[in-house]
Design a protein that fits this description.
Keywords: Hydrolase. Belongs to the carbon-nitrogen hydrolase superfamily. NIT1/NIT2 family. It comes from Chimaeribacter coloradensis. One of its GO terms (molecular function) is hydrolase activity. Pfam families: CN_hydrolase. The protein is built from seven helices and 15 strands. It is α/β, with parallel strands linked by helices and about 270 residues long. The protein has a single domain, classed as Nitrilase/N-carbamoyl-D-aminoacid amidohydrolase. Strand 3 and strand 4 form a beta hairpin. The protein is globular.
């Protein structure tokens, strides 16, 4: 499966970001990609105001999603993109939307909110409380995560035990002490410990690091962007996945065979 990773500088104006997403979608289709992963909150972002997400949020049937739906019609490309939607009680949800051929095929409400490094996402954002569904993309089972979710190994393991062979992690990874190192360590570790592919895509510019990458089931980066806007591609190989899971059968060897259920989490 050919996958595309599109990182860009997210503007406070959703129209600008929608246009960028549409361009990346068209280029991904032209390149023959089956899956395009875009950053967390790529609909709109304003890092200068902590509560900007409240005024920038749109419903799932709003103009941003409709633009992407229109751009996807007549193609087989599956696009994963991030946005904020109103929660109905003055707050918002941080949501991934999955779009294919004019349809919204899935969405995921971020479970782990970024209350760290003197930031408090939960001030304006409500956490989700459901494990995201797996996606079928070009014969691969794909699991959804968002940014801070990468720091919680139970989530990745739960998705893989549900059958995920590929994990995607749209992010807006914030710059800071050792943060680039953490990004590389966490994406690599989640892929290696679960013997799966991991696609991590971060926004770039301003406060975000870029550095989007694809890690294979043996923990090797097979594609890597730098800090500037980019569209990069990688091939996911089912034979490689099977080979690694045969020689490194950690999923079979584990003794804790029942991953945590969501109602056992503190949510």
């Amino acid at each position: 499966m050919k996958v595309a990773l599109g990182q860009f500088v997210i503007s406070p104006q959703w129209q600008n970001n929608a246009e960028t997403c549409q361009i990346l979608m068209a280029r991904s289709v032209q390149a023959g990609a089956a899956l395009l992963v875009l950053p967390e909150a790529c609909m709109a972002q304003d890092g200068s105001q902590a509560d900007a997400v409240l005024r920038l949020a749109q419903p799932l049937d709003g103009p941003f999603v409709n633009r992407l739906l229109s751009a996807s019609r007549g193609t087989t490309l599956t696009t994963v993109a991030g946005m904020h939607i109103p929660s109905g009680d003055g707050l918002v949800y941080n949501v991934l939307v999955v779009i294919r051929d004019g349809e919204l095929v899935a969405h995921y409400h971020k479970l782990h909110l970024y209350d760290a490094w003197e930031m408090k996402e939960s001030k304006n954002v409500k956490p989700g409380n459901e494990v995201p569904p797996l996606l079928d993309v070009a014969g691969f089972k794909v699991g959804l995560m968002t940014c801070y979710d990468l720091r919680f190994p139970d989530m990745a393991r739960r998705l893989v035990m549900d059958g995920a062979e590929v994990l995607v992690a749209p992010s807006a990874w914030v710059k800071g002490p050792l943060k680039e190192k953490h990004w590389e360590m966490l994406t690599t570790t989640r892929a290696l410990e679960n013997t799966c592919y991991l696609i991590g895509v971060s926004a770039c510019g301003g406060r975000n690091i870029g550095n989007s990458l694809v890690v294979d089931p043996m923990g090797m980066a097979i594609a890597h962007a730098a800090e500037e806007p980019a569209l990069i591609f990688a091939e996911l190989d089912r034979a490689r996945l099977a080979q690694v899971r045969q020689i490194l059968p950690v999923l079979e060897n584990q003794r804790f065979v029942r991953p945590l259920l969501v109602d056992e989490w503190k949510v």
